[in-house]
Design a protein that fits this description.
Blueprint (H helix, E strand, L loop, with lengths): L4 H13 L5 E7 L7 H8 L3 H22 L4 E7 L2 H8 L6 E4 L7 H18 L4 E4 L1
Parallel strand pairs: 1-2, 3-4
Helix pairs in contact: 1-3, 4-5
C-alpha cells in the first residue's frame, strides 16, 4: 500500500471480499522515483530501517483508519527497495495479493511507466493469485 487512492480502494476491497482473512499491509519505501529522492534519502539515513518505518507511518495510519471503519485488524510490514520485487519476494507467505491498479504519482506519464508497472510486474511474476483493483 502506498499513499494513493487506489491503494485505499484495494484495502477496502480486501476487507469486503475476504471478511475472515488476516490482512497484511506492506509499504515499500525507497523505490524508483523521478529524481530518486526517496531512495537517496534512505541511503543517507543513519538507520535505514528506522527511516523506512518513519516514512511508512502515514500509510499505516491510513490503513489502520480503514481497518477501524470495518471493525478489522491488520498487520503491517515495511519493505525497502523496489515495490514489485518486495511484493513478489514475500508472496509465498500469503494466499493472495491485492493491490491498486496504479499508485501515487506525479503525472499521467509516471503512472503509466513507473508506478503502473508495479501492478503489471506483480501480476505477471507472482506465484500466487493477484487481484488488481481499479
Amino acid at each position: 500500500m502506498d499513499d494513493s487512492e487506489m491503494a485505499e480502494k484495494a484495502l477496502r476491497y480486501a476487507f469486503d471480499e475476504f471478511p475472515e482473512a488476516e490482512i497484511t499491509v506492506l509499504n515499500v519505501v525507497g523505490g524508483p522515483s523521478w529524481m530518486m529522492g526517496e531512495a537517496t534519502g534512505l541511503a543517507l539515513a543513519d538507520d535505514i530501517e528506522e527511516a523506512a518505518a518513519e516514512r511508512a507511518e502515514a500509510v499505516f495510519e491510513c490503513a489502520h483508519e480503514i481497518a477501524t471503519e470495518r471493525n478489522r485488524k491488520i498487520s503491517t510490514l515495511v519493505g525497502i527497495g523496489h515495490p514489485a520485487r518486495n511484493i513478489i519476494d514475500r508472496s509465498e507467505d500469503y494466499d493472495t495479493i491485492i493491490l491498486g491498479a496504479h499508485g501515487a504519482d506525479r503525472s499521467r506519464v509516471s503512472r503509466r511507466f513507473l508506478v503502473g508497472n508495479v501492478a503489471e510486474t506483480v501480476s505477471k511474476r507472482a506465484p500466487i493469485p493477484v487481484i488488481i483493483v481499479r
